[in-house]
Write a structure and sequence with these properties.
Layout: H1 8-33, H2 42-60, E1 69-70, E2 93-98, E3 109-119, H3 129-135, E4 154-161, H4 166-179, E5 186-188, E6 196-203, E7 212-220
Parallel strand pairs: 3-4, 4-7
Antiparallel strand pairs: 1-2, 2-3, 5-6, 6-7
Helix pairs in contact: 1-2, 3-4
Length: about 230
């Protein structure tokens, strides 16, 4: 294993790769929003989004040869001597690149990890969407048993925003984040209806790399999905 770490060229190229992935995600989410009869469930939305990602990749980067993977297991990490629990976990999407400029060949496989969750009012009392966004989404980038985006400085969360006012959703998410000693999500710019909204925060992790920046892309799907919601609480 090389002690010199990744080259400046390797780091620069990886930053460009991350930007490409975010651009593809934004374009794909806008395409998803335009589709008719959107499903309610996360797994069904993810499947629709996968095909939007493929189209967005070809539209934005026609010479790109790396496609996103859907529900692909975490890749092995060279710091683990044996199969780790995290290798059994499956992020919703990831791009896997082979970095020819990485000095250590065992670290030349690099992944940009994306996890997706629904946002809004829950149709089930035992499954609170805005809390689950943190508990079963954000936390997977910090929990070593899940180890999403291990060895990488950034990752992304997709929020399928299906109901409720934006500020109330954000408040609910941040209440849950504070319970788990995570920093608040911060809105970048202003709320945009029927569009992609950008949020972010940075937090510490017990494994490489830390601190870690998580980007959040919330697509406004309110009124577009076939969702049966209970009435708001009085």
């Amino acid at each position: 294993m090389s002690a010199s770490g990744p080259s400046l060229k390797s780091c620069g190229l990886w930053t460009k790769r991350e930007r490409k992935c975010l651009a593809i995600l934004c374009r794909a989410l806008l395409s998803l929003q335009q589709e008719a009869d959107l499903p309610e469930a996360e797994v069904d939305l993810n499947r629709r989004l996968y095909f939007c990602l493929l189209s967005a990749s070809r539209e934005l980067y026609p010479n790109e040869v790396v496609a996103p993977s859907h529900e692909c297991n975490n890749q092995p990490d060279p710091n683990d001597e044996a199969r780790a629990m995290r290798e059994q976990k499956r992020p919703d999407f990831q791009w896997i690149y082979l970095d020819r400029y990485e000095s250590d060949p065992h670290r030349s496989s690099k992944q940009f990890i994306v996890e997706c969750k629904r946002l809004g009012r829950s149709s089930r009392a035992d499954w609170v969407l805005n809390s689950n966004y943190v508990e079963h989404g954000v936390s997977r980038f910090r929990d070593p048993h899940w180890g999403y985006a291990k060895r990488f400085p950034r990752g992304a969360m997709i929020g399928y925003w299906q109901s409720m006012d934006a500020n109330q959703v954000l408040q609910d998410v941040n209440v849950e984040a504070r319970k788990r000693l995570l920093p608040d999500l911060v809105l970048v710019g202003r709320w945009k209806s029927k569009n992609v909204n950008h949020l972010k925060h940075t937090f510490e992790r017990s494994f490489d790399i830390s601190p870690f920046e998580l980007r959040h892309l919330w697509i406004d799907l309110r009124g577009l999905s076939n969702i049966q919601l209970p009435p708001p609480s009085p």
